[in-house]
Amino acid sequence: MTKKALIVVAILVFFVRMAGYGEDIVGIVEDGESSSSLEFVNVVGLGADSTFVAGTVTDSVGRFVLSGDGIGLLNFKMIGYEEQTIQVDEYCGETLTVRMQPKETILKEVAVTAKPTVTRLVEGDMVTLVDNTPLANMPTVFEALSFIPMLSVQGEDVTVFGKGNPVFYINSRQVRELSDLKTLQTSEIASIRVITNPGSRYGSDVKAVILIKTKRRVGEGFSGWIQEGMALNRQFSNTVGAYLQYRWRGLELFARVFQNHSNSESIMDYVSDIFSQNPRRQEFSTRFIDKGNDLNGKIGFSYDFNSNHSIGGSYYLLWNNRKRDMSSLTRLVEAGMIDDWRQDEEEDAKIWPLQNANFYYEGKISDLAISSNFDYQGNSSNTDTRYDEFGGAQPARSFSTQGASSSRFLAENLILTYPVKKAEFTLGQEWTGTNYKSNFFCPDGVMKSGYSENDESTIALFISWKQRISKFFWEVGLRYEHRRVKYDGSDDAYKEVYDNLFPSVKFGAVFGAFSWNIGYRYDKYPPNYSMMTGEIMYVNRYSYQSGNPQLKSIRQQQVYLNAQHKDFWLQSGYQYQKTPIIHTSLFYEPDPDIILQRWENLPELKSIYVSGGYQTAIGHWRPSVSVGFQKQFLHIEVNHHNMNMSQPIYTIGFDNTLELPWGIAVYGNYRFRSSGDQQLSHMRYAHMLTVGISKSFLKNRLTVQLYGKDLLNQQINRFTSYNQAVVDSGVSDFGQRKVQLFVHYAFNATRSRYKGQGAGSAEKSRL
Fold first, then answer.
1. In this predicted structure, what is the pLDDT of residue 423?
2. CB of 426 within 8 A of CB of 198?
3. CA distances from 692 to 119, 130, 230, 688 (A)
4. Boundary-marking domain end, from 65, 100, 135
5. Residues near 49 by Cβ (< 8 Å), separated by ≥ 6?
6. Which of 225, 624, 639, 652 supports an S-S bond with 672, CB 3.0-4.6 Å?
7. Is residue 114 assigned to a domain?
8. 298 with 387, same domain?
9. Looking at residue 422, which CATH number applies to its domain?
10. Which among 108, 259, 204 has a CA at the least distance from the CA of 525?
11. Tens of pLDDT, residues 264-305
12. Measured distance between the N- and C-terminal CA atoms of the chain, rounded to whole angstroms
């Protein structure tokens, strides 16, 4: 037996021995009809005389733990379900399973005198309630996410403070296509959970996870919705979509179609100071106009044989066409000589098509829960670009380039979860196989043609142990990955094999209104495939760009501390990265007059982050404020001088939602980011103001929303990027300011029973 296998066996034995300790009452609460787990159920332990002894709420998998001392009755309450009380006098240490029955009575009016805390810390994760709050009236899920602490949203790009881009799940199902988020209705969301330190079941390169849980809907037959969205952002864009679902007993069929027509205009101005034997400066002023059309659709089914076994499958198809017109004025100043020219660029990019398929099985045998997924994704894209240059010291010229890429992805996983008294054990495996090809061709010979192919496969085994005893809880996980990498390119080829162990641990406690947790995690982030292409792409006469086939993965260790007391919360951490990936500029070896922009590895990067906030409810007004601090520790060499890139970045957020009579909701938020250093760039301050109003009609079936984003037009990227021989300073305005009108009509809305979680989430994000 290998050393690594002995380690895994030893940990398993230790887990089983520890699982038997303590005298807590452990149970799982499920929906009585669908057998799905119920989160946020109030569980109260009562004495023999019905006096209060202890209380808690169920977690994301419907699990609860209470100290058994003095408890004779358990009471369960949740909005939309019948209240239930059971006796536990003869509790024998086995896990209880409680099934709550949905209420059929619909109340016409409900007087609410107290509002729950919107965001709270649950075992170290930030959980935000959306149902019955103004967040449920946001135009899209991205606008709702912009009101959640620790999240930054620019368009459809979501980042977690101090972590980066997250992986999304909807009802435990991995989000594979962005359209799943774009079409998700905020009125259907029950809660949003931000996991800043994912456990071992997630890939080693998953930086953060956002779990979106939707509300439970009852009913059979046909249901669905139609919607129309319009936006004005220097240009006019619109989106139209429809969803149809049919449910009968255990069978569910669904179909979705969406058509998007987007127009955008952006401006970028920057200056490059180049330090060489012939110092020079390039000045750029560029205007982009992007037009896009895409049509996507999804069909699928699910079937529940009974409360313990279900299967399902889905198929997604996307056609996309994007055209970009770019006009750039460039000036080169060298030794008193000035060279001015204009460059026009026409780019035509097509995805034809992108396909995605998933098949799953969810089951339960006694207390053993089984989840298995099979995934396929295929993608083919082509980009044709024509360049026209005229004016300046060089003769006018026109030429074209052609780029093509394709990818194929296969994945499967099997996850087993078993409760042992007061503990929960998860054992799983995952396999992914990816092939990514890229080709670049310049028929006019201005650029060198090239190709690259990446072929990777990964086998992962993981185990985790979660336990809660009295006021304390902990989670320990271990993930093993065996990865094979093969690269073949125009100028390079290699094969490599990696074997890695990734441990994670979390420990915390809950003392009344105060909770805290600490933890450690080791991760590894391989570069995206687009970063590893070896082809040289054209920017202008004196600037090229390329990927880097020799990029190494980022290895990261982090420790963190999170806490919450009533309406105050805090999250903090320290990160150490080995070989972090940065975007830099260097001299192009065949011609030192040309600058090559490419990805490189730094030796190391250290950083800390602290984020905290306060939230409350004053009548129908819900204000919250948050502040953040992020600082890296980095020194680099610029033009033979040492530069300290360690200026911290401060953030401030102020969110407000106000519920008015007649189904009207008003909301607004303000975000501010100070100047500071991020990797090789010094970022100047930016801020954004957003306001909106919504009105519901026809018993909430019809919703109309008007939304204004970045009204002050200050979400602009002002930066100075430092490299050893080049300093770039510029301003990028991607037109965040816009006004949206959103109309949504739903009929007989029911929640999907689809349970597929998908496989290979981390690997798909690299594509």
1. 84
2. no
3. 21, 16, 14, 14
4. 100
5. none
6. 652
7. no
8. yes
9. 2.40.170.20
10. 204
11. 999 999 899 998 878 889 898 999 999 999 999 999 999 999
12. 36
573 with 705, same domain?
yes
Tokens for 30? Answer: 């499920």
Helices (H), 66-160: 141-145
- Report how far apart, in Å, the C-alpha atoms of 445 and of each of 341, 346, 358, 379, 544 are: 21, 18, 43, 28, 15
Residues 530 and 527: their CA atoms lie apart, in Å, by: 8
89 and 143 together in one domain: no
H/E element, 427: strand 423-441
Whole-angstrom distance, CA of residue 529 vs CA of residue 766:
6
Question: Strand, helix or coil at 624?
Answer: strand
Tokens of 642: 């040492």
Domain membership flag for residue 60: yes
Closest CA to 735 of 158, 146, 290: 290
> For residue 21, what pLDDT is reported?
43
Q: Determine the Cα–Cα distance for residues 218 and 248; give it in Å rounded to an integer.
A: 12
If one counts the domains in the chain, the total is 2
User: Considering the domain boundaries, does residue 283 fall inside one?
Assistant: yes
Structure tokens belonging to residue 80 = 């939309």
Write b or e for each residue in 179-191: b if 16 or more Cβ atoms lie within 10 A of its Cβ, otherwise e: bbbbbbbbbbbbb
The phi and psi torsions of 592 (rounded to 5 degrees) equal -65, -10
Type of residue found at 260? N
d(C-alpha 539, C-alpha 545), whole Å: 7
- Same-domain status, 75 and 212: no
Evaluate whether residue 110 is within a structural domain: no
Question: How far is 477 from 272, CA to CA, in rounded Å?
Answer: 47
Instruction: Tell me the C-alpha to C-alpha distance, in Å, between residue 298 and each of 225, 295, 322.
Output: 15, 11, 21
Domain holding 96, by residue range, is 3-100
Token pair for 270? 């920057």
pTM beyond 0.70: the answer is: yes
pLDDT at 19: 42
CATH number at residue 25: 2.60.40.10
* 526 secondary structure, DSSP code: P
Looking at the fold, whether 400 and 368 belong to one and the same domain comes out as yes
Low-confidence spans in the chain with pLDDT less than 70:
1-23, 33-36, 48-50, 60-61, 68, 79-80, 89-94, 103-118, 172, 176-177, 179, 216-219, 749-767
